[in-house]
Amino acid sequence: MTIKIRDKEFKPYLSSEQIHDSVKNIADKINKELEGEDVIFMGILNGAFMFASDLFKLINIEARITFLKLASYEGTVSSGKVKRLIGINEDIKDKTVVVLEDIIDTGITMENIIKQLRGYEPKEIKVATLLFKPEAFQKDYKIDYIGFTIPNDFIIGYGLDYDGYGRNYPDIYSVVKTNNSGSKMKNILIFGPPGAGKGTQSKKIIHEFNLVHLSTGDILRAEILSNTSLGQEAKKFIDKGELVPDQVVIDMIDKKIESNINGNGFVFDGFPRTFEQAEALCNLLKKYNTEISVMISLDVNSDELTKRLLKRAKEEGRVDDTPKIIAHRIEVYNEKTAQVAEFYSKQNKLQLIPGVGEIDNIFKLIKIELDKL
């Protein structure tokens, strides 16, 4: 049955029995892997108190536990800001530290915790989390022990809260999504040859219109890092030096869209790159009763692109980015990827924006087109 906390309704997601079994699995791994080590567990308050307590009861190696306090959450989202850690009263030098967190989403908070703890010179820092959201994860550090891999949904219970409420429930509940048809979404496809400034303008669009950044590169890395079935499938091809099949990428995008269907929309970055991918994306979006709203194509001449890419290569130490290779990349773009522009042009969704000039002036031109939506 559903429960209501303040203005939101939540439905059952993970039972206390499922949670107990998962916590036991984590404890069993820790007991086996850290036997004989000088271990200190550090639970992160407020959220991880239930997880830390239940886990520590199942630890049968010699270990101590303490709790750290920090502030990083406001409402239903992570602010990404971490204040100074409070409560490091233990001497952790040359000891194995296991940080216990209830949930890791973006990974920003945990990254800051790890950086601060390293200043105390522990032998090793390991991370254990009951819940992990690979779709939201933005970092590349290792998470050693994971209870559940879950979608990027908002959840409460078992220490997790909504504005301070809901921590007391023994089960975990996920928010009931409103019936959003998807038809009011702004779905922006940012397009252009290498060096056109897509990354820079994507960030501005996302910030201005509160959209979700959908980068196939980021999604691939997150799926592989969390060892999902899709990530395992993609890794097989990557390890052989082959391209990940379109269908695998589409399935990953499908997961990302589904978990953010109540948002304002998406900025597609790096996909689609071919006519076939554009058709596949079109069919996928129909499933959610939505579509690409507009393709913003940044128009930059070849000479300017070459100049930018050579400058970037010098700044980033990319010795392989020679004028010849850059010219080939632009040629490949014109031969293959530019077909995507034709696909959306036929739907009257292509908007060419001059990509040369001041960054803010280019964005003003983009904003004029997006405001029309």
Describe the structure.
By secondary structure, the chain is an alpha/beta fold. 40% of the residues lie in helices and 22% in strands. The protein has eleven helices and 16 strands. The strands form four sheets. A five-stranded parallel β-sheet has the order 4-3-7-8-9, with helices on both faces. Helix 2 (49-57) links the parallel strand 3 (39-45) and strand 4. The longest helix is centred in the last third of the chain and has 23 residues, at 323-345. Residues 72-82 have low confidence and may be disordered.
Please describe the structure with a list of short key phrases separated by commas or semicolons.
373 residues; alpha/beta; Rossmann fold; 2 domains; five-stranded parallel sheet; 40% helix
Query: What number of structural domains do the residues give?
Result: 2
Per DSSP, the total helix count is: 11
CATH fourth-tier homologous superfamily of the largest domain: P-loop containing nucleotide triphosphate hydrolases
Q: Which secondary-structure class do the elements indicate?
A: alpha/beta
Report the CATH architecture of the largest domain.
3-Layer(aba) Sandwich
State the total count of DSSP E strands: 16
Low-confidence stretches: 72-82
CATH topology of the largest domain: Rossmann fold
Strand-residue proportion: 15-25%
Distance between the termini: 39 Å
Q: Tell me, what's the shape? A: globular
Biggest sheet strand order reads 4-3-7-8-9
Walk me through the topology.
Blueprint: E1 3-5, E2 8-14, H1 16-33, E3 39-45, H2 49-57, E4 63-69, E5 73-74, E6 77-78, E7 96-104, H3 108-118, E8 124-132, E9 145-149, E10 155-156, E11 172-175, E12 186-191, H4 198-209, E13 212-215, H5 216-225, H6 229-239, H7 246-259, E14 265-269, H8 275-287, E15 294-299, H9 302-316, H10 323-345, E16 350-354, H11 359-371
Parallel strand pairs: 3-4, 3-7, 7-8, 8-9, 12-14, 12-15, 13-14, 15-16
Antiparallel strand pairs: 1-2, 2-11, 5-6, 10-11
Helix pairs in contact: 1-2, 4-11, 5-6, 5-7, 7-8, 9-10
